[in-house]
Amino acid sequence: MNQDHSTLLYIHGLNSSATSHKATQLAELMKHLGLSERLRVPELHHHPRQALAQLQGAIEELGRPLLVGSSLGGYYATHLAERHGLKAVLINPAVNPHQLFDGFLGTQKNLYTGESWELTHDHVAALAELEVPAPQDPQRIQVWLQTGDQTLDYRRAQGFYRACALHIEAGGDHSFQGFEQRLPALLGFAGFAPQLLQAIEPSAL
After folding, report:
1. The pTM is what?
2. In the β-sheet with 165-169, what is the strand arrangement from edge to edge?
3. Architecture of the domain made up of 3-204
């Protein structure tokens, strides 16, 4: 990858936000490095079709970004990575989320924005439309899992992404504890110059 054009697209999860903890940590580091223009963190619409349109627009702006998807964002990132041949880091990703919403239809509330919205059968159908076969490229897809994820069973992702580069940590939680310590590795995978990563001070993480 051309290091002069390395870019990142962060994709948050369901009822999360562009101001979530991981998104903020990544944005702050990119700002510290003077690279804010190389990162996009869109505030995604709750409906999958509209969210995908936003993400497609961000990809067009960035060129060939590394996709960084958390939870439902990991599902979106998987779809987009397979469609466009992009690299992706999936953090505690949702696997086939359209199969997980039994009993959860109805009013939802975004934990960050306070927005209330209705989860409908159309949302679930739209998610099903994005399903892709299990990725098979460990050079292109990394999957970061923590066994203490209280929201999603990490074993679903472990099985689905078994042909990818799996990084499984004991403990942790759905938010992925210690994410900031993995940021140099994330930027390295995206193709940013090694000398840039060596200049990252621990205080910036």
Report:
1. 0.94
2. 39-40, 8-11, 66-70, 88-91, 141-146, 165-169
3. 3-Layer(aba) Sandwich (3.40)
